[in-house]
Amino acid sequence: MKFRQIALGLALATAGLTGVVGTSVATAQEKVQFFPSLTGRTGPVAPNATQFANGYADYMKLVNARGGINGVMTLVEECETAYATDRGVECYERLKGKHGGATVFQPLSTGITFALTEKIPADKIPMITSGYGRSDSADGDIFKWNFPLIGHYWVAGDTVLQHIANKEGGWDKLKGKKIAVAYHDSPFGKELLPIMEERAKKHGFQLQLLPIPAPGVEQKAIWLQVRQQRPDYVVLQTWGVMTPTAIREAIAVGYPREKMFGTWWSGAEPDLKDVGAAAKGYSAVMMQHGAEPQSDVVKQILSMVYDKGQGVGPRNEVGQVLYMRGVVGAMLSVEGARAAQAKFGKGKPVTPEQARWGYENLNLTQADLDALGFKGVMRPVATTCSDHMGSAWARVHTWDGAKFVWASDWLQADKSLIDPMVKASAEKYAAEKKMTRRSKEDCQQ
């Protein structure tokens, strides 16, 4: 098992520690908040997942440069999963009890999420899965420890279809159309399908399902089907090397990039930078943020972290799409812990169980987000016992040949359609696991 510990400089200095935590475990437990980081710096998703890990680590350093979480310094330790479920579970087991206990896990893998969902209730450790994992885990009455904050796959699918419908002139214009879904043949890829099928049934368009075996470097047979059947649109639910491979194959068979739309793990710079101008016109729905190089939070990371020689990755990647995904993930982790401090003791580290309360009672107003540096990047997020997602907004951006530019206004997923789907799926899970919905008393704790 490969570990890569990022000893956040200011955290260690403040806690009176040297390079590796362990010389003073009691001190660390008293003065730091531990945020484990499950990374994918190797393997088929490395170009994408590395940026997430860098953004996550850099934001935690920024938090410490700002004075910590009311004086409590963040501590990050990485464990490499290579996007493999078994390695992800092993990382979880190794890290969950370190440094006073893991505050929250963010596995960056739907497969790992499915596996850990079975473990976290007994261990009483929360898990944030922004934009991935189980879509039905938005139902906090069933999934007490899961938090798909600010979006899940059904939000992605619904908003990308909204954008397509808008381009066509309305939902009714999709009747009789054919929409292909090329998806990673795994729990990650398949998780998108229920919302696509629900919308197809509702609006009368035909779905063409195209599963792509991982890692996805061989797709010629898939794109021959696309060339033969000529769907009106192609939606990609891909990740890592699978995405640029799909775009190159589309170019090879002459399928127009203007008719191709990715979900939010299929639309970042590593996917398109080597394809360049040939990918012009390709679009993807974004989980609120996109590339944000001019945002206040990026400017602060550059001045307070990189200018001091403490940045984790290449400076020129700071603010790119997946880097920002890591920044947002870290911010949500920290703000949940801050909310927990407000209840359980300001300026004191919180336990994983207390942090869970913070994520369930998150209330990030626009003023809060602006103050944190996310003005123009994110919209408000507010969770409840029943709603562990807290926001369902997205936007679409389009590759102009060299970079992404915004191509839509804000889109909000249709909760009147999605909420019943979430509830029905959560109820099915609860029945299989012989669980009951949480009581009002449990929600108030």
Automatic annotation (TrEMBL):
It comes from the Bacteria. Residues 38-400 form the Leucine-binding protein domain. Keywords: Signal. Residues 1-28 form the signal peptide. Gene3D superfamilies: 3.40.50.2300. SUPFAM superfamilies: Periplasmic binding protein-like I. It holds the Pfam family Peripla_BP_6. InterPro entries: Leu-bd, Peripla_BP_I. CDD domains: PBP1_ABC_ligand_binding-like (cd06334). Belongs to the leucine-binding protein family. PANTHER family: BLR6548 PROTEIN. This is ABC transporter substrate-binding protein. It comes from Zwartia hollandica. The lineage of its organism: Bacteria, Pseudomonadati, Pseudomonadota, Betaproteobacteria, Burkholderiales.
